[in-house]
Amino acid sequence: MRTASILREIIENRRTTKPDRFTGEVIPEPLVREVLESANWAPTHGFTEPWRFTIWTGDGKSELVDFLIQWDESRSGRNEVREEKRMKSVESSSHIIGIGMKRGENPKIPFLEEVCSVAMAVQNMWLTAHSLGLSGYWSTGEIGWSDELRDLLGLGEEDQAMGFFYLGKSAIQPLPGRRITTIDDKTKWVGGQTSETP
Question: Would you give the DSSP letter of residue 192?
Fold first, then answer.
């Protein structure tokens, strides 16, 4: 199979799997490092390489659970159902990767471009995880973009937290992919369109 065909198959078959559908099995560290290494090859304007990761696994996951529960309590008070959901997501995951964007020193590079670069790093992780038979879930929401998470990740005031990437092994068979419309419905050609297929 051609490399392009393999890549397309990986892209089209990657699925989001929520942590409550993970097995809880621990992923060997070399595989986790392979996922992280792929993030390091994301496109980056001016070689700022703005992605930063904090990883919770093993006994370290209790620290993350405490942070999540305290954050929830500070917003809406104690909620045992939400606490249980948080704990299950963390416990079912092998590794939870905190995602951060650290701004480069070049002021000419816009903040948004740095955020986009980190998003591409996460996509690299997702595709690599899928190719290794692993599953991932990128969780954001209010907490994912919060100053509190930014501080937990050890980032500065000019930087940005971008949520969590839950990594695990899926306990379910992923559903077939689908798109509501075709790429032609989302594309505008200017200057002509070739009918040739490579």
Answer: -
